[in-house]
Write a structure and sequence with these properties.
By secondary structure, the protein is mainly alpha-helical. It has one helix at 2-114. The protein is built from one helix and no strands. The longest helix has 113 residues, at 2-114.
Length: 115
């Protein structure tokens, strides 16, 4: 009878130990699950941040491209205006040269008349 009682106590003790181990494992599993959930949330948050940065970068790149296009157009306009100014200068230089030559001829005629 004492032996059976002892066996009963031993089994009860083993059962309680097994239950305690089971409870400890359950708590560890729950803690691990919470950690995993937190890390998953951190990853989602990081992905969102990355996505936002990607969008900001895209906007900035589009702005730079637009500014570059505007700069190139302004450059083309300036080159066109420079050509026009060069042509106008050539024309004025030619006009001045013709005027100078006409004045020289006039002076020569006056000198001939004086003589």
């Amino acid at each position: 009878s004492i032996n059976a009682e002892y066996m009963g106590e031993k089994e009860t003790k083993e059962y309680l130990e097994a239950q305690a181990i089971s409870e400890k494992e359950r708590l560890e599993y729950e803690a691990a699950q919470r950690q995993l959930d937190k890390e998953t949330q951190d990853v989602k948050s990081a992905e969102q941040t990355l996505d936002n940065l990607r969008k900001e970068l895209e906007v900035a790149l589009n702005k730079v491209k637009k500014e570059q296009d505007e700069y190139e157009k302004a450059q083309e306009i300036m080159e066109k205006e420079k050509k026009e100014m060069d042509e106008a200068k050539k024309y004025l230089d030619t006009q001045k040269q013709e005027l100078d030559e006409a004045q020289k001829k006039k002076k020569k005629k006056k000198k001939k008349k004086k003589k």
